[in-house]
Structure formats: structure tokens, C-alpha cells
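note to self: dont lose this again. the chain is below, predicted strucutre after it. 178 aa total, dont forget to put it in the shared folder this time
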Amino acid sequence: MSLVDELLGEGAVADLCVWKNKIKSGITFVIATHTWYQLVIMETRLVPFLCSTLLVLMLLLFIWVKFGEPLFIWRAPTPEEIKQKDSPVRTLFSEIEGLLLMLYEIAILFVAIIYTLGSYISLLTVIYICLVCLMTIPVLYLLFQEVVDNFIEDVLEVKDKILEIFKPSRRSYGRVLY
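---
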């Protein structure tokens, strides 16, 4: 299992990032690029842009429901399903709670980073750069996996050598009483 598979896991987001389905990944990349271009370069106002986007999405949803399959087929869990200890619904809620706690802990760092970068760069540009990195770095890693892994091993060896230098010695100097 490669490092990219360990970090991203399996699923739709991971498949988009490593371009397993080139059409879906390309569409995602083009939509993100177009949105960034409209909002940052063309200086489109955010609220009218969001309204226009929502109108288009509502139109697509109407066409899909009218002429195709319904978008969501899902029922709400019953209280009995939630109360069971081995219930998949309870497991799902536990997983969501764990993810939310993890995101809460990470959020403080990201708020500080975004605050600092926000004074220099537009937030939309930062988000777009993150998306571009998210969609290119995994592919580059998969192409040059051996080179990157060898480099990381070399860096880890150097790090261990440096840490050995700074490790405190185990000599005791005895107690001095005054």
C-alpha cells in the first residue's frame, strides 16, 4: 500500500485526487478553476455568483428528477436502531463525533494560518492553490514513488543522527547540598 493510499484512504475523494476517473477529476478541476477565475480575476461578486450557481443546480436537479432516477433514496433511522449498541447507525454517529473532535483540534491551527495568509493573498486563491496541490501531488507521488520514498528514508536517517547528537546524556552529577 502506498503512502497516498494510506493518507487518502479509499473512496470518491481519493479517486478524484489520483485521477482514477479522468473525466470526473477533470470536471472537478475545470469547475474549480472557472470558479476561482470568476471570483478572483473577474472580480465577480460572491452572492450573485452563488445565486446563479444555485439556480443552475436547481435546474439540473429538476431535470434529473423529472427525466431520470431520483437523486437520494434514504430513510431516517428509527429510535430503536439508534439505541442498539452494535447498530451501524450508532457506529456512524460515533465516527462522525470522532471526526468532528479531530477537526475541532485542527481548526485552531488552520485559522491562524489562514489569518496570516489572508493579509497577503485572497482566500479564494489559497483554496484554489490547495485544490491544485491536492489534485497534482498524489499523481506526481505515484509517478515518482521510488525516488520520493528513498529521499524520505534518507531524510529520516539524517533526522535520527541529529537527534542522537542532541539527546541528553545519562550522567548524574550528584546532589549538592548548601
